[in-house]
């Protein structure tokens, strides 16, 4: 009880000094809890959506997955008679046919703009059916009852400012048609972000599936006399082969799996960055407790002199850590809920509608937050607590400032740090020299970990050298004040190293990712210049082109040629008898000129002769294939063909790596016309290569009525790649910013405690003539040089990581190393600004000290 009272008294006495450490715990716990609450809420919301909207049993064609995996393939369908077959089964109350497609685009005819979701969610067109547990309910108007009527979901209608009586243009794989909106339906549960348009059944069959008398699936509902498993068994018996039947639970699990894959990536990424924040927070807390122990050396010595045991002193410091962890965790858990709400609102802004009233906080979330917060502070305070317990009463009574910590030998630590750093550097070199991506990734992971730990351990040794050099270069113009700032930073290399290490971690990640990102962009630009022969690349948001788009592109004046590109699912029988389900890239022969794919043997153009094809280098190696090998290809529709390998394409490319090419003539010969896929890409060249602008303008004009289609020249394509990578890096930089914020708090905390530690010294300097302005400048310069030290080692370490990662990416064709010097210099200057800002409050506090009171401080 005495230990607890002492710890509580000390904690409250130093509550201001503990505040910044508590913020570090708060941020770390908040990020973890916010991530868990957000993902749990989304999972629970979608579980509810799928559980309430799935039919008791759902019947689909057996090959329904093919159309999803290969854009442009004709939709898999089942005969309309299937509805009657299922409805006649005992225990089935009713059965409904569904005709739907996701390869559609919704366009506002008034603006000719795509009104579909921009968040990556699909646009879904379907026939309107009334089911017991429908996801949407008709809330105004009436259901579509003819070939020119449609019903729109309320969210899409509100976003596009459309209402009953307005028109909407629907572009499907089979053409473009305009519908009048006769009704609006509202989601009864969460809107997953999709845009939905409903048609009457005959129109949906004709325009979405290609012809009447078919459905994409059948949904059946039981009368309660049989279980869903029994209904499934009866349906499978009645239908025979060629169908897949799912129960309500199975359909919900499949839908949940597709959503869960995205959420798991998001969850793991956010928790990874939360872990970085936790690691950075450890340095802050270690520094805080180390300095507090050093400042309370005399107090601890008195406790030991009057009978306190080492265990009691150790326990006293650890109890303070627990109090800090509990307080920071409690605030962090509350902050995590706030972060989760913010993430939900962000997703709402992207088109997904998550209701904060359904916020899900599982019992495990606050427990995890509390455990993390308390463990972090306990682990961080353990070494300072042991150090406090070892203080001799007599030594403490003779010591006035706790300088023992600074004087401890760093030789063993430096040796360990050098060994770890050397091992890490060797791993990074091995990663760069690896011939296989899997092996190289393992080396890279070990190299990053070992060099990070090595630099942290070797921090005091680096501080002694790097800070001296930085001080000489940057602080010389400030005269004696600059020299004093440098000496203050060098006074305790351990403390300086730990403070800078927190900043180092964040900046190492920033510079490493910058090198990787810049190298990827530079490599892609080089690959485009070297490999892409086409002047124009035409793509679509809907997955595949409609025939009228292809006709418009081919009819554009000023083009030399237009190359069609289709994806086709086939089953290949290899020479050893094994089978492999693979997509073939079916193109015109001109594709060999549009994309100059490197080969290890043969020539791509030979694959466009009768019976020819290409395979990727990896596929050929894995299956023992070579030039001239023959494969049996089973095409959609049941026909087979013997295909000869006329070229093996290299794996050292970033475009179409591993793709298998076959001529369109071969596809048209073996695939029934109605099963030939739509084009997923188009490539074109200008007839006048010296002046392609006219053809470029013509293409833009030709697809003006198709907002889902984009025409890009090579410059546009390069910009697209840069923009996509830039958005990803900006998101990562934002998350890394959390760790940098914690690191900045560490600098503030170190300086604030350092000012308290040097109270008498500051008073003496003021007494002999140091002005308040000079004192503030000295503390600011000390902060700047510490921040610059962290920036130097962080940026250097990050560039080493990025260089090793780029060498690994070279195995996938990204062989250009690009160091983003502008970013590196900006970050370095930014570190100086961060150091300057971090010192403002401690410097102001130091300058406000009463000189006589400071001198009298013991």
Automatic annotation (TrEMBL):
Domain (ABC3 transporter permease C-terminal) ranges: 273-393, 735-851
Region span, Disordered: 59-81
Keyword Transmembrane appears in the UniProt entry: yes
Keywords: Cell membrane, Membrane, Transmembrane, Transmembrane helix
Pfam annotation, one family: MacB_PCD
Keyword Iron: no
Bilayer topology annotation: Multi-pass membrane protein
Annotated Polar residues bias: 66-75
Domain of life according to the entry: Bacteria
Domain MacB-like periplasmic core: 19-212, 496-701
InterPro entries according to UniProt: ABC3_permease_C, MacB_PCD, Macrolide_Exporter_MacB
Compartments it resides in: Cell membrane
Residue stretches in coiled coil: none
Transmembrane segments: 270-294, 317-343, 363-385, 415-436, 442-475, 496-521, 731-756, 781-801, 821-844
Stated family: Belongs to the ABC-4 integral membrane protein family.
Protein name as catalogued: FtsX-like permease family protein
Originating species: Streptantibioticus rubrisoli
């Amino acid at each position: 009880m005495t230990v607890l009272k002492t710890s509580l008294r000390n904690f409250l006495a130093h509550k201001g000094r503990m505040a910044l450490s508590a913020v570090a715990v708060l941020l770390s716990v908040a990020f973890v809890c916010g991530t868990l609450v957000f993902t749990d809420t989304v999972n629970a919301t979608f579980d509810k959506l799928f559980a309430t909207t799935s039919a008791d049993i759902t019947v689909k064609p057996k090959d329904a997955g093919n159309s999803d995996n290969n854009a442009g393939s004709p939709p898999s369908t089942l005969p309309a008679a299937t509805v009657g077959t299922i409805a006649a089964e005992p225990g089935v109350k009713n059965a409904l046919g569904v005709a739907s497609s996701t390869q559609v685009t919704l366009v506002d005819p008034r603006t000719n703009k795509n009104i579909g979701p921009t968040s990556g969610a699909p646009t879904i067109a379907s026939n309107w059916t009334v089911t017991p547990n429908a996801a949407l309910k008709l809330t105004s108007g009436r259901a579509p009852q003819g070939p020119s009527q449609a019903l729109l979901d309320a969210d899409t209608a509100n976003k596009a400012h459309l209402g009953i009586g307005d028109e909407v243009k629907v572009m499907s794989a089979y053409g473009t048609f305009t519908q009048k909106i006769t009704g609006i339906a509202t989601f009864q549960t969460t809107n997953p972000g999709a845009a939905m348009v409903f048609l009457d059944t005959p129109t949906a069959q004709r325009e979405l599936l290609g012809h009447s008398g078919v459905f994409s699936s059948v949904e059946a509902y039981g009368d309660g006399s049989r279980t869903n498993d029994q209904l499934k068994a009866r349906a499978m018996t009645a239908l025979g082969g060629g169908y897949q039947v799912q129960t309500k639970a199975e359909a919900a699990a499949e839908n949940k799996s597709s959503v869960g894959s995205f959420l798991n990536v998001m969850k793991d990424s956010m928790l990874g960055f939360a872990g970085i924040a936790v690691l950075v927070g450890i340095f802050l807390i270690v520094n805080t407790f180390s300095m507090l122990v050093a400042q309370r050396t005399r107090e601890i010595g008195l406790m030991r002199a009057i009978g306190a045991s080492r265990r009691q002193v150790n326990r006293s410091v650890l109890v303070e850590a627990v109090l800090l962890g509990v307080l920071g965790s409690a605030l962090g858990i509350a902050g995590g809920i706030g972060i989760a709400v913010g993430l939900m609102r962000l997703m709402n802004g992207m088109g997904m509608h998550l209701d904060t009233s359904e916020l899900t906080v599982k019992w495990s979330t606050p427990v995890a937050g509390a455990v993390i917060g308390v463990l972090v502070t306990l682990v961080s305070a353990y070494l300072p607590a042991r150090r406090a317990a070892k203080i001799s009463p007599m030594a403490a009574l003779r010591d006035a400032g706790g300088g023992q910590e600074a004087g401890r030998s760093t030789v063993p630590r430096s040796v360990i740090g050098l060994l770890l750093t050397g091992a890490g550097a060797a791993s990074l070199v091995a990663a760069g020299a690896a011939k296989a991506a899997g092996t190289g990734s393992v080396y890279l992971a070990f190299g990053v970990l070992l060099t990070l730990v090595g630099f942290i351990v070797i921090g005091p040794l680096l501080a002694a050298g790097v800070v001296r050099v930085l001080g000489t270069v940057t602080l010389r113009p400030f005269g004696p004040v600059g020299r004093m700032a440098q000496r203050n930073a060098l006074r305790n290399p351990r403390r300086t190293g730990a403070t800078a290490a927190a900043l180092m971690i964040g900046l190492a990640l920033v510079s490493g990712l910058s090198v990787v990102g810049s190298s990827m962009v530079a490599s892609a630009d080089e690959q485009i210049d070297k490999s892409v022969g086409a002047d124009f690349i035409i793509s679509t948001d809907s997955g595949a082109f409609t025939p009228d788009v292809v006709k418009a592109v081919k009819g554009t004046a000023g083009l030399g040629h237009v190359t069609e590109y289709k994806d086709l699912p086939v089953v290949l029988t290899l020479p050893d008898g094994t089978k492999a389900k693979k997509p073939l890239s079916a193109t015109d022969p001109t594709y060999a000129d549009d994309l100059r794919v490197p080969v290890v043997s043969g020539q791509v153009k030979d694959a466009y002769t009768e019976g020819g094809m290409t395979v990727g280098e990896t596929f050929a190696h894995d299956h023992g294939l070579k030039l001239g090998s023959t494969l049996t290809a089973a095409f959609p529709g049941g026909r087979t063909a013997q295909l000869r390998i006329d070229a093996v394409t290299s794996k050292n490319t970033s475009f179409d790596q591993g793709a298998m090419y076959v001529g369109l003539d071969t596809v048209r010969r073996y695939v029934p016309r109605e099963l030939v896929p739509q084009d997923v890409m188009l490539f074109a060249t200008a007839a006048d290569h010296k002046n392609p602008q006219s053809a470029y303008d013509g293409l833009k004009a030709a697809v003006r009525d198709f907002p889902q289609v984009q025409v890009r020249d090579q410059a546009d394509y390069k910009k697209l790649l840069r923009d996509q990578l830039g958005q990803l890096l900006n998101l990562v930089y934002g998350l890394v910013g959390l760790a940098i914020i914690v690191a900045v708090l560490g600098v503030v905390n170190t300086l604030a405690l350092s000012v308290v530690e040097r109270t008498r010294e500051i008073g003496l300097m003021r007494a002999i003539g140091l002005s308040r302005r000079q004192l503030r400048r000295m503390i600011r310069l000390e902060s700047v040089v510490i921040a610059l030290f962290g920036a130097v080692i962080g940026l250097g370490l990050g560039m080493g990581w990025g260089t090793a990662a780029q060498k690994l990416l070279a195995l996938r064709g990204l062989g250009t190393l690009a160091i983003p010097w502008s970013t590196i210099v900006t970050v370095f200057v930014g570190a100086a600004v961060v150091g300057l800002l971090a010192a403002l409050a401690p410097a102001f506090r130091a300058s406000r000290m009463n000189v006589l009171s400071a001198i009298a401080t013991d």
